[in-house]
Write a structure and sequence with these properties.
The chain is an alpha/beta fold and 227 residues long. The chain contains seven helices and six strands. The chain has one domain. Strands 1-2-3-4-6-5 form a six-stranded mixed sheet, sandwiched between helices. A hairpin with a 2-residue loop joins strand 2 and strand 3.
Length: 227
Amino acid sequence: MRVLAFTSGPEDWRALLADPVKHWRTGYSARTLAHSWEAADGFSPEVASAVGSSHDPLLAGLAPVLAIPEFRVPLPPTGGRPSQNDIFVLARSLAGPVAVMVEGKVDESFGPVLGDWLAEASPGKRERLEFLLRTLSLAGSPPDALRYQLFHRAASAVVTGEQYRAAAAVMLVHSFSQKNTGWQDYAAFLSLFGVEAREGVPQRLGSASRIPLFGVWVAGDSAFLRS
């Protein structure tokens, strides 16, 4: 059972962080993202513009229903560390429910590359990677230089979308970086699906995933870096 608590402002997001002191700093992603999303009436202007630019009927008329900060998605193996997503948005399009997983970034990386994450990998890690690849309908061994975080964020969107019988799932990177940090890693991940990454445009990631999956990179308002 999940019990939801409503927020009354950005500070309510702080207590949900793994480290409410270290991770809650001006100019960093957790605080910046919280202020941006709390200030919005629905989607922020840049997110609304991005999803509104899609011509895919699965995303037509997309609007948020609710947003849950620091949303954890259990992934195999049982008892392993869940994927902790910055925000889960249950949205609705003309086609039905849509699961949106939001990853906020400023100048933080997407974490370790697969090669480092798999170094001396336990059976549990290999089980998890196999699950992620199956969920995303990716065959073969992905390049070691790709970022592991992008795999479990995308899979979290698909897994949660299935739970809500969603028409589609979306992995949304909401970047406030003035240097576009992480863009090359995002583009490399999308290339696994034969997609050339474009900023501010939802892009369908293949056609074989368990439910239709989209990726979108959105540039956030830099004013929130000072919040």
